């Protein structure tokens, strides 16, 4: 077993993990910082797949204006103090990116190009100069900074369980997913920055599966926002990133009758709205016999096409594949479908990443931030800011934290991790497909009802109790896939169970049997372990409006009418 001792161990080398390492190294140049990622070294996680568009509060906008937009957009489920911290620091992170060498689109007069988001008054994104490569360049520039800071970075290692001293997290155990070599990491502070859970769908959403979330849950962390998931609009034949730019510039979805159906469901916002509301409408249109749904870009002005056409990277590959099929995204109407992608739920933490579990911080999308609705560029903003803040916090904690002596039975935990290897059993992909078949139907993922959610929960319990323990892995690579699938099952159960518990419609959570808000339930839904991994204990944390500066006076969901 290879043992590595460090001051700060970071799980995940995406946006949040890279920023956490950078800020910690800036604050404590003497600190030994290690990033461990299950993907290739320095690949950058989902940021590599992102378009590179970034949200930031720039003049003449104010932080207060943006906070009020998000209070409205989140249907009141907005942590105003957290949002203030994020938005206040967003300008600095954008400036850092530009200082590192990233470029954002500017018009001929030198002013920044921006695209307003979701029909909100102030929230806007700033597009990357190179469409399709913006996120990739962000990663390369951040990695260059970490090389100068002497941050150690390791890839192809899956961490499967935390080391603990009593209640304190003080490291992790894992293995090389190619060779099977066992690893032990001892650390004073651990930062979970490995992203959210998910369902291993198209392109960049194949890797977030929630194993770190499950590890943290087992260590005593609280989960929040598990009833929310990202159900996105996707082309049927290929993956694409950037409809957050397309819709405000004139793109629209139309049904088989050629109708821009969002104008009917939301006369005020029309197609320029959050994709979660669009997918509800898409499901209703198909259910009513007005499918398939196609994407119409004919109204976008020619001068804006430069923001959309990919110059390089994976989107250029997909664009070329589509062209080979005789279709042009910017000329032809192409069929689009809803797609379940990732979970919005995560670890409950404060602005500085403190989870309540000693020694364990959470950053980026590993923590719960937004309630199931998403504005373009929001993730790149929040992961950079929250990663940076968690890194600062880790640097402070080092001054008051001594090295621990774990009481974890390392040999027993390693044996538990490797137990599925070398035996015969179910192939992970068959179990994964079964989980997907339970969660993906529209009456579980989009238009939820008590009956459909209860049916899904029953089937997921069967999978977790009978199929997950029966999986087997032939080698370390498939052991990685098996552990990911186990986490997908866990995330799925938490998602369905929390969706049953929230008996109202709010933000990205739509209950067809409870289609309106419960005015007495403006609260975050939290889950904690009570001795059982399949029967979580729920409690609600009311949104503390008396402590906040802005009242909830309007709701984004009031722009929509989905009654048929």
TrEMBL record:
GO MF annotation: an example: succinate dehydrogenase activity
One Pfam family recorded for the sequence: FAD_binding_2
A single cellular component GO annotation: plasma membrane
Cofactor requirements of the protein: FAD
Domain FAD-dependent oxidoreductase 2 FAD-binding: from-to ranges: 7-368
Single GO BP term: anaerobic respiration
Highest taxon listed in the record's lineage: Bacteria
UniProt keyword terms in alphabetical order: Flavoprotein, Oxidoreductase
The Fumarate reductase/succinate dehydrogenase flavoprotein-like C-terminal domain, residue ranges: 443-547
PANTHER family: BLR3196 PROTEIN, SUCCINATE DEHYDROGENASE 2 FLAVOPROTEIN SUBUNIT
Name the UniProt record assigns to this protein: FAD-binding protein
InterPro entries to which the protein is assigned, alphabetical: FAD-dep_OxRdtase_2_FAD-bd, FAD/NAD-bd_sf, Fum_R/Succ_DH_flav-like_C_sf, Fum_Rdtase/Succ_DH_flav-like_C, SdhA/FrdA/AprA, Succ_DH/fumarate_Rdtase_cat_sf
